[in-house]
Every structure is written in C-alpha cells, then in structure tokens.
Amino acid sequence: MSLHSNLSREAKRLATALQAKKLKIVFAESCTAGLAAATLARIPGISDRLCGSAVVYRDDTKSKWLGIPAAKIRKYGAASPEIAKAMSLAVLTMTPEANLAVSITGHLGPSPENPSQEGIVMIGLAIRNPRRIQVLTIHLLKKQRSSPRVRLQRQILAASTALRAAALFTA
Predict the structure, then answer these.
(1) CATH for the stretch 3-169
(2) pLDDT value of residue 84
(3) How far apart are CA 165 and CA 127, in angstroms?
(4) So what's the pLDDT on residue 112?
(5) Surface-to-core class of residue 90, CB atoms within 10 Å of its CB (0-12 exposed, 13-18 middle, 19+ buried)
(6) For the whole model, what pTM was predicted?
(7) How many whole angstroms separate alpha carbon 117 and alpha carbon 79?
(8) Which of 143, 167, 168, 171 maximizes the CB count within 10 A of its CB?
C-alpha cells in the first residue's frame, strides 16, 4: 500500500469517527504544513466536522498566532512534548466550536539544530469536554539519509499517524 493511499484511508477513518461521535476538529500543523487538514478536507461532507487549520511552520508564527510564549519555545524547542501540547490546547481554545484539536510539530530534516532530532515528530491531542490531553512522540525513517524524497515520506507518515491517533483518541 502506498503512503498516499494510507494517508487517505486514515483521513476517512477519522471522518467516520468524527461523524459517529458528532465531534468537530481543528488542527495546528507545523512540519506537515497543513497536509493532515488538507487530506481530511478532500472528503465530501467533512465541512460539518472540520473547523480549520493553523499552519504554524515557524517558531515566531507559533508564538504570534497561537500565543505560545517565545521563551517557552526557546526553552523546550519546537519539537517537544511541551510545545505539541501547547499548540493543541491553544488552537482548541481559539476555536470554540471545536471539540478536538490535533497538533503536529517536529524535525523532518534536513539539518535540524540537534541532529539527534531528525525524524522526530510530536503529535498533540486535546479534547475539550471532558478535558483530555495526550502527546505522542514518533520517530520516522531514522535510518535513511535526509533528502527531499525522505522529507516528503516523513511528512506523509506524520500526517497519517496524526489522523490515525485522532481517530483512536475519540474512542
């Protein structure tokens, strides 16, 4: 099965879960640059469930758009559980009609400041009521040298994993 078909399958799974639970979702995406939300948006009728997505690729944008203090980002780094959690909570707070928020942040390569972080992705999940928060850390294709192809594969895997995690989180 191709990465693209897996991504589409996970989006459909999430759409079904959102519909069944009558939940609305919002995203804050960094390293995937909106891929998870864009894939979900391809599903007919998803406008009843998808509130939107903030693509907060750079640290300053995370700070300005989501209100995450720059000092917190400097302290923990953008690819950290603390920032993934802050992103999901911030976008959920800023989107009153959403019940569920998903954030994705990480270093997909090439050349992160800390080479040991290449391929690391954090996924933040937050449900409004009852309040639940979870952060997942995943390591993507660590053994492959970074290239544009590997970076794209990592983006697809990160988005696919986030969509799957969101579907499971709603259960």
Answers:
(1) 3.90.950.20
(2) 98
(3) 13
(4) 64
(5) buried
(6) 0.93
(7) 8
(8) 167
Report the pLDDT value the prediction gives residue 80, as an integer from 0 to 100. 94
Under 8 Å between Cβ of 162 and 13: no
Q: Which two tokens stand for residue 66?
A: 């989501």
**What number of other Cβ atoms are within 10 A of residue 64's Cβ?**
12
**Alpha helix segments (H runs only) across the chain:** 3-21, 35-41, 59-66, 70-76, 81-93, 148-169
Residues of the chain where predicted confidence (pLDDT) is lower than 50:
none
Model pLDDT, residue 140: 81
Q: Which two tokens stand for residue 166?
A: 């969101």
- CB-based burial label for 170 (10 Å; 0-12, 13-18, 19+): middle
**Which of these, 78, 62, 57, 76, lies nearest to 121 by C-alpha position?**
78
